[in-house]
Amino acid sequence: MRLLATRSVRALEEDLADLEARDLLRVRRRVGGGQGPEVRLDGRRVLCFASNNYLGLAADPEVVAASRTALSTGGASAGASPLVSGHMDPHEELERAIADWLGCEAALVFGSGYHANIGVIAALAGREDAVFSDALNHASLIDGCRLARAAVRIYRHGDLDDLEEKIRATPARRRLIVTDSVFSMDGDTADLAGLVEIAARHEAWLMLDEAHAVGVFGDDGGGLAAARGVAGRVPIRMGTLGKALGSYGAFVAGSRALVETLVNRARSYVFSTALPPAVVGAAGAAIRIARRERTRRERLWRNARRLHEGLGAAGLRLGPLDSTIVPVILGEPWAALSVARRAMEEGVWAPAIRPPTVAPGTARLRLTPIATHDDEQIDRAVEVIGRAARQEAR
Ligand SMILES: Cc1ncc(COP(=O)(O)O)c(C=O)c1O
Known about the structure:
Blueprint: H1 2-21, E1 31-32, E2 38-41, E3 44-48, H2 61-74, H3 82-86, H4 89-102, E4 106-110, H5 113-124, E5 130-134, H6 139-147, E6 151-155, H7 160-169, E7 175-180, H8 192-201, E8 205-209, H9 224-227, E9 236-240, E10 250-254, H10 256-265, H11 267-270, H12 277-292, H13 294-313, E11 326-331, H14 333-345, E12 348-349, E13 352-353, E14 363-367, H15 375-393
Parallel strand pairs: 3-12, 5-6, 5-7, 7-8, 8-9
Antiparallel strand pairs: 1-2, 2-3, 4-10, 9-10, 11-14, 13-14
Bound molecules: pyridoxal-5'-phosphate.
The site of pyridoxal-5'-phosphate has 14 residues, from α5.
């Protein structure tokens, strides 16, 4: 028995060594204190361009105070899944606030974006159905497709002709199109007008993952569907509470029938403990701020434009600025790691993203400015990353 265990451990060690040799080993960095434009990393302050805390709400005093109040009144845990005894007052209030914000009949709060995506797809698409998924969708949507018993067709990234061809060629009782609205690693956006047209033509459902869009797009931060004027034509909108909304968890918003179906059929909802009240209280406060404070969103976008323009002028390889995510393509994993390491030495955290998260040959830095960076911090990042990339290219 012990011999077997030792052999298994050795196999794991070999696997890890292989990952390291290919510059693909992942390690965690330990952050001290809270999230913000700067964080404490291994005891020193660094500028952080690594988080999805887009509106800078994770450590906002109003959000923290609301969380504290919910903790004092509701306690530390929801104690059970929502269908048992975990659906508490703060959860109900948050769902109503989300539905009101997004102009939907109802919303349902999930444990995380990952939970939501794996739960929704399998709940809506069964054996006789088909799911159509963009090739660059987030891993949680991919895993949701894997869990569903439906036929899964992957269409080329953003290629709506390919999508339509696949829909035509796939007989199914029910068709579900799933896509990120903002693609998390490239920062590009889906053609929502085109997608709603295709969905209407083929009587398909459209599910949008707005994880990187809520709080960031739209007059009151309602997401990309709201910003592009198609919200009423997207029956399933999913968003996360742990990114721009500075808390944790996720929601699905749509019709009452959709929400009731998920309450009954989404296994990741039914069989998982509800979010703790403190987390839900924080999310509620963050939504109020996101709706109310347009200037925060404007600062986020101004920062993204300043960073993008600065890095472009420094000669780095960038795509167009479609969202507030700024990827700097560097090619091979070692190049991305090396530039990230040099930037870190100068106090700028610019995370390297490597395969399999992105396609081979497109390893990159993924930079995420937030609303609470100031001009000086953005300019410092441009200077440091530009220099690091030039040194690497020599
Ligand atoms: C597009 C997208 N969807 C879903 C998720 C998962 O959300 P969560 O972190 O709340 O599990 C992420 C997280 O990174 C994401 O980028």
